[in-house]
Amino acid sequence: MNSHQRTVFLAVLIPFAFGALTFIETGGFILPFPLNEMIFAITAFIFVFRLFRSEKIISLFILLFSGFNLLSTEFIWSLFSTQESLQYYYESGVFDTMRFFSYLMLLAWLIRSFLIDFKALKLVLLLIIVSLFSIGLINQWYYLMVVATFIPFVVAFKFSYLKPFHLLWLLLSILNTMTLVMFQMAKA
Q1: Could you please report the per-residue DSSP string of 40-92?
Q2: Taking 70 as the threshold, does the pLDDT of residue 128 lie above it?
Q3: The pLDDT of residue 161
Q4: Can you give the pTM of this predicted structure?
Q5: Cβ(22)–Cβ(29) under 8 Å?
């Protein structure tokens, strides 16, 4: 297991350890899904710190995505804002704007990753991923977004140029899956 794999493994292990501790204390298994964006941002920063010299453009898109994604959560803003400020940000659309920019950066990262050299198969895969993600986003079918973020990880076994950033796609897919599971459990 190399250092990138260990980093992602630890990033996935943290929410499960938190959930296990919550289960021991309260009897209910709860994953800390509001912290997913922070976990991804810290992991992405570690990846970018290690790989910035070799992949500057992709590293920039990853940093921008994780930064906007982090700023799109109310949890992060609640650490340094008052309740009135949060209400104003919520009503004025700050969170939605940050989420929109994070999705744009995710799309830019995806396009840059897949179109390093032009091949028809990569273009088809890119269109499938963007279509699944867009349909999932528009219709709020979050399981399609999970599938769309998992595809680049699987495709990395065919196209090795996506490595080691494919592990970030895996982490994003796992974190989105955990959020989806927690929301489904809350509805039940």
Answers
A1: HHHHHHHHHHHHTTT-HHHHHHHHHHHHHHHHT-HHHHHTTS-HHHHHHHHHH
A2: yes
A3: 67
A4: 0.86
A5: yes
